[in-house]
Amino acid sequence: MNQNTEWMQDPDLKNIPIPKLQFLQNMLFESKKYTGKELFPFFMSLATKAKSQNITYTQQEIDKIIPVLKRYASEDEIKKMDQVIKMFKNRT
């Protein structure tokens, strides 16, 4: 997924505030710079940034966002998303 914001217009996301979607878009674009072990510190810094901007996601929002992101992503991007999701599930 490049800087294309088409996914943000998906009808499944209509009830999610635009600033939350924009934050995700920026995160997705920036995360392309990192691989493997570099991803965790990157996402931890993003968590701090989100907190400072009062951006939080409910489980319902996450459950809507992930399938939409995957619809617009390449196979490699989907693998990376699955890797990140697994990483965070293992940490909780």
Largest sheet: none
Number of strands: 0
Rounded mean pLDDT score: 85
Shape descriptor: globular
Report the span from N to C terminus: 27 Å
The stretches of 5 or more residues where confidence is low (pLDDT under 50) are none
SSE string, helix = H, strand = E?
Answer: HHHH
* Domains (count): 1
Beta-strand portion reads under 5%
Q: Radius of gyration from the CA trace?
A: 13 Å
Helix % is 55-70%
- Count of helical regions: 4
Global structural class: mainly alpha
Protein described:
The structure is a single chain. Helix content is 64%, strand content 0%. By secondary structure, it is mainly α. The protein has one domain (21-91). It starts with 17 loop residues before the first helix and ends with a helix. The mean pLDDT is 85.
Short description:
Helices cover 64% and strands 0% of the residues. The protein has 92 residues and is mainly α. It has one domain.
Layout of secondary structure:
Elements: H1 18-31, H2 39-52, H3 59-72, H4 75-91
Give a quick set of tags describing it.
single chain; 92 residues; mainly alpha; globular
